[in-house]
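In response to reviewer comment 3 from the previous cycle, which asked for concrete evidence that the modeling workflow produces usable outputs, we include below a single protein chain processed end to end. The sequence was submitted unchanged, and the resulting structure tokens are shown without manual editing.
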Amino acid sequence: MEEFKLQVRFGDKKHPQTYLSPDVRTQFPGWGDEQFNRPIEEVIFFLPGNRFIVMSGMEKYNFFVECVKGMSRDSVKIEAIYLLGKVPYVNKVLMWKIDKSYVNFREVPFGKEYNEGPTRGWKGGTKGKPNTQMVRV
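The workflow returned the following structure tokens.
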């Protein structure tokens, strides 16, 4: 089974650093617990089938996993995975939603990124020319 991993590259070009998450479908994907002490330059999210999503130039970045818990069971089921970037100087978020059967991209207003409401967990980025795309190797 292929892993879903998140790689974060920081903006210090003299001393580049990267963070590579465990499989984000595990109990603790790591994003919320990480205290990044440098602005994020680029985020890469690895998908099955030699695909990945690249996001750079954002003012802020966010990542979270949407889960639901069954009424009669203790099991938790992943519904979707989200990767978000706040575009500098405008009230816009670029958002990727990865579901079981599709990858969807859309733009939403900042503060209305999840079910018309705000999200927590934003981490600072290096403002630049916003770029995001899905790449197949």
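The mean pLDDT is 87. We consider this sufficient to address the reviewer's concern, and the full set will be provided in the supplementary archive.
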